[in-house]
């Protein structure tokens, strides 16, 4: 590629001749990737703020100068795309020449009505692959329905609560437990607390209710370590068939008394039952 140097003419300042050392132009040969006749010129600054730097611009065959990529795009037209054009070297980093073909064949286009509402989304990401260094290792999944931890001795907060009769406004007598149900040695637990503890165990337990397996002295010595949280704080008890028959007999007796009270205080109820 031929190189041509050109220097500005001398400048007369105060009767003395001085050379303009501000710029020296170097014009390179014809560029191969631009249209025929285009030239690349580089200006080197010798003094001033831009001393030692150079400015690159391009000249068309008609003499027009392009000092920015935007001006170069306007001069080249739509046939070239200067987005991949390296301004310093004067080369395209990729094939940016737009191919224009006069194809008169109709192209397949999607319907405007359906294409307007079509949604363009990115392809789904690949699922992560877990590679284990131990072939015999097994992965244990956490249960999805994990029970919330229960606070120990939470029934003690209900010590001041009482059951109030809505009609009279007075407190009802506290309920009692059968004699076979006794405390296992939980600190501060009386019969009132044991009833609430049994209610929570019966409503939330999925297995059988058997009570505590540890003896009372062991639980009283270290209740936090000896108590089984999944069982109520009562001694280990076994419900026999005789206990079940007694409970059934008691339920039948209460139902009979309730039926007699309804017939006594509401005769219409007895007539409806007979009819």
Give the key terms:
five-stranded antiparallel beta sheet, disordered N terminus, elongated, two-stranded antiparallel ribbon, 275 residues, alpha+beta, 13% strand
Question: Would you kindly provide a written description of the structure presented here, covering whatever features stand out?
Answer:
It contains seven helices and nine strands. Among the domains are: 24-92, 2-Layer Sandwich (Methyl-cpg-binding Protein 2, Chain A); 241-270. The strands form three sheets. The protein has a five-stranded antiparallel β-sheet with strand order 1-4-5-6-7. It is elongated, with a radius of gyration of 49 Å. The chain is of the alpha+beta class and 275 residues long. Helix 6 packs across helix 7. The chain has helices spanning 69-76, 112-116, 191-204, 216-221, 223-226, 241-265, 267-274, and strands spanning 4-6, 11-13, 16-18, 23-30, 39-45, 54-59, 65-66, 85-86, 91-92. It is 25% helix and 13% strand.
């Amino acid at each position: 590629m031929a190189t041509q140097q050109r220097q500005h003419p001398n400048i007369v300042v105060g009767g003395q001749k001085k050379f303009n050392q501000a710029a020296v132009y170097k014009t390179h040969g014809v560029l191969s990737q631009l249209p025929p006749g285009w030239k690349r010129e580089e200006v080197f600054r010798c003094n001033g703020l831009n001393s030692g730097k150079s400015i690159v611009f391009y000249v068309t065959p008609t003499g027009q100068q392009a000092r920015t990529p935007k001006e170069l795009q306007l001069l080249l037209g739509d046939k070239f795309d200067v987005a991949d054009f390296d301004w310093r070297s004067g080369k395209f980093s990729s094939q940016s020449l737009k191919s224009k073909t006069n194809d008169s064949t109709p192209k397949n286009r999607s319907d405007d009505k359906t294409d307007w509402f079509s949604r363009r989304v990115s392809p789904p990401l690949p699922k992560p692959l877990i590679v284990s260094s131990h072939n015999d290792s097994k992965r244990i999944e956490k249960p999805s329905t994990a029970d919330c931890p229960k606070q120990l001795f939470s029934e003690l907060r209900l010590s001041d609560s009482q059951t109030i009769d809505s009609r009279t406004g007075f407190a009802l007598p506290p309920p009692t437990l059968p004699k076979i149900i006794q405390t296992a040695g939980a600190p501060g637990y009386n019969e009132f607390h044991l009833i609430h503890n049994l209610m929570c165990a019966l409503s939330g337990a999925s297995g059988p209710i058997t009570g505590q397996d540890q003896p009372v002295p062991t639980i009283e010595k270290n209740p936090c370590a000896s108590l089984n949280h999944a069982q109520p704080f009562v001694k280990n008890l076994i419900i026999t068939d005789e206990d079940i028959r007694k409970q059934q007999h008691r339920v039948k007796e209460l139902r009979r008394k309730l039926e007699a009270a309804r017939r006594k205080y509401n005769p219409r109820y007895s007539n409806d039952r007979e009819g």
